[in-house]
């Protein structure tokens, strides 16, 4: 069962309380998993039990997403604000320099944690902020359409659509190459997560003009990209490799923007290989 954890975070205006929901499984060296914008920790469900055979896996609902609370007053939804909360979360959990894997927005956070020396290794699956301006506008447009659809469709209609493969494709085909593999219950839950994500708009606004431009020379970094990513084209992986020359760049054949559902065994192997 997911756990709810409250802890104090330092801000310029004094300490504030954050509350984060997370799922912990397995035993071994800690591996933290960070989802993308509008999603929740259950995005990692297809790979959790595979990873938990060898590792203690900690899948986090990012602040303002899933069942976690919004960021406290005084902490913005930018890179610095979220990383401050994640760093404090690690301290509260008693995990010092865990391995971390992230997808999309979570991949960006994973890279920043690596740059700051807060983690032992990074695996970033289709990380954000390696786009050009046209690609950024396109990605934000896709995400905004998904958000608008999730908010407009009545829950009863979402549940009806999710029963069939065509309906699951309509609801999640932008992020999965194989949406029919996602269960109806999972599609209903992640559509609700997108609809109720209180941090969505502020997070999108915070990334309007940002690029990730820092090398991460001191720890292992893996950057993996789905060959069928319809949100962030895989050519952005080549740009990421130029920014982080020592990174291992891996292609995920047949996978979409959220590849854990499309090929769980491959994604789990890439994460474990990158965090040995």
UniProtKB/TrEMBL annotation:
InterPro entries: AB_hydrolase_1, AB_hydrolase_fold. It comes from the Bacteria. Residues 31-269 form the AB hydrolase-1 domain. Gene3D superfamilies: alpha/beta hydrolase. GO terms for molecular function: catalytic activity. PANTHER family: ALPHA/BETA-HYDROLASES SUPERFAMILY PROTEIN, LIPASE-RELATED. This is Pimeloyl-ACP methyl ester carboxylesterase.
């Amino acid at each position: 069962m997911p756990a709810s954890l409250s802890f104090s975070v330092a801000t310029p205006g004094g300490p504030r309380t954050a509350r984060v929901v997370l799922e912990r499984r397995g035993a071994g060296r800690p591996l933290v998993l960070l989802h993308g914008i509008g999603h929740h920790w259950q995005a990692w469900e297809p790979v959790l039990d595979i990873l938990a055979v060898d590792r203690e896996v900690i899948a986090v609902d990012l602040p303002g997403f899933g069942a976690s609370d919004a960021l406290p007053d005084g902490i913005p939804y930018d890179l610095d604000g979220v990383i401050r909360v994640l760093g404090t979360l690690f301290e509260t959990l008693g995990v010092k320099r865990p391995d971390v894997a992230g997808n999309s927005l979570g991949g960006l956070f994973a890279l920043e944690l690596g740059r700051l020396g807060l983690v032992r290794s990074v695996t970033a699956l289709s990380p954000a902020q390696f786009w050009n301006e046209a690609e950024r506008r396109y990605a934000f447009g896709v995400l905004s359409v998904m958000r608008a659809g999730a908010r407009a469709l009545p829950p009863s209609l979402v549940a009806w659509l999710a029963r069939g493969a065509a309906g699951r494709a309509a609801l999640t085909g932008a992020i999965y190459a194989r949406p029919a593999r996602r269960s109806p219950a999972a599609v209903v839950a992640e559509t609700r997560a997108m609809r109720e994500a209180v941090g969505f708009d502020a997070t999108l606004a915070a990334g309007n003009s940002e690029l990730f431009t820092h090398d991460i020379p001191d720890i292992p970094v893996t950057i993996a990209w789905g060959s069928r990513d319809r949100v962030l084209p895989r050519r952005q992986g080549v740009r990421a490799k130029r920014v982080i020359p020592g990174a291992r760049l891996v292609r995920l054949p047949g996978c979409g923007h959220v590849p854990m559902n499309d090929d769980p065994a491959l994604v789990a192997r890439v994460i474990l290989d990158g965090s040995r």
